[in-house]
Amino acid sequence: MQTEQNIPAEFLKEKLILLENIAQKELAISNLSAEITKLTSTIEDQNITIEDQNIKIEDQRFQIAQFQRMLFGSKRERFESNEHPDQLTIPFDFGDEKIEAVIEADKQQITYERSKPSKPHPGRFEIPSHIPVEKVILEPTEDVSGMDKIGVKITSELEYIPGRLKRIDYIRGVYITKEDETGAQRQVIAPLDRPIPKCIAGPGLLSNITVDKFVFHIPLHRKIQMFKQEDVHIPASTMDSWVSLTSNHIRPLYSVHKAYILENPYLQVDESPIKVQDRDKPGATHQGYMWVYNAPMQNAVFFDYHKGRGLDAPLKNLSPYKGYL
Fold it and tell me: Residue 156: which residues within 8 A CB-CB, separation 6 or more?
């Protein structure tokens, strides 16, 4: 066995030179890798810049085409102002910030669709992060003792649990104070906050019935049938009473919404006839009118019901109104 002392000096010198060359080559490779990474990043930035420029060019071409159509197109395509100097104009500048934001979003969407006609596949639907997660661990049916676990495969599934009814018992201790100087006593019990006093329905149930009826347009008799499937029989008169009493809680919101609509400088108002059951005459109906106040610039509307078609209904709301009707 040879030791380093027995190795010729020339061989050691060549070995050192070779190691030094290898180190220089590795350093050069590392520098080249860094330079390649930098160039790749620069190319990506330039591609993004080119894509933005192409989008701007397409937008400019579109605008030029519009101007050319206005100037040189057929008579029906040209822009000719029909404003008369003596004609009053409607102030359509209400909510300029919101309008500009919507216009900008539409421009971006139009530009994107024009520059990229072939829409890429959006990919697999992703389950939102706010959805609660239930973990189910599944193991192979065969014996895995002695095997090495090399990983975990997760398969996500979006499942639905139907709404369920439950009974809540509020158990409140009743206490009595000691006798005072006059020998009187009083009971002490925790307060019970209910949306409708002496009503068996909880706030969640009342909200579900109201939202299903007025947002998802599910008639009350269908809700009654749905509860019957749970072997819970709710009379129709009780359901009607729940909806009516629940509506009292949103009267302040309705008043605020009405005030918001009447602040708009431009309104469209009209009435629609509607047949309404008459409480004074069971089985009969009377002619009612639903007055609709539409604010088109805000895409907002509120309804005001009256039994008659007289002027009292709109004048009550529009007497303080200042704007265009």
Answer: 127
0.85 exceeded by pTM: no
Q: Is 43 helix (H, G, I), strand (E, B) or coil?
A: helix
Per residue in 194-226, pLDDT (tens digit) is: 889 888 999 999 999 999 999 999 999 999 999
Gap between the Cα atoms of 301 and 261, Å rounded: 7
Span 36-48, pLDDT tens digits: 888 888 888 888 8
Question: Cβ(90)–Cβ(324) under 8 Å?
Answer: yes
Architecture, CATH, for domain 264-325: 2-Layer Sandwich (3.30)
Distance CA 209, CA 243 (A): 8
Which sequence spans correspond to the domains of the chain?
9-73+91-118, 202-262, 264-325
**Ramachandran area for residue 183 (φ above 0: left; ψ -120 to 50: alpha; else beta):** left
Q: Please answer whether residues 220 and 234 qualify as being in contact, where contact means their C-beta atoms are separated by less than 8 angstroms.
A: no
Q: Which long-range contacts (CB under 8 A, 24 or more apart) does 125-128 make?
A: 127/156, 127/158
DSSP 7: S
Tokens of 73: 């197109």
Q: How far, in Å, CA of 107 to CA of 113, rounded? A: 10
The angle formed by the CA atoms of residues 261, 262 and 265, to the nearest 5 degrees, is 95
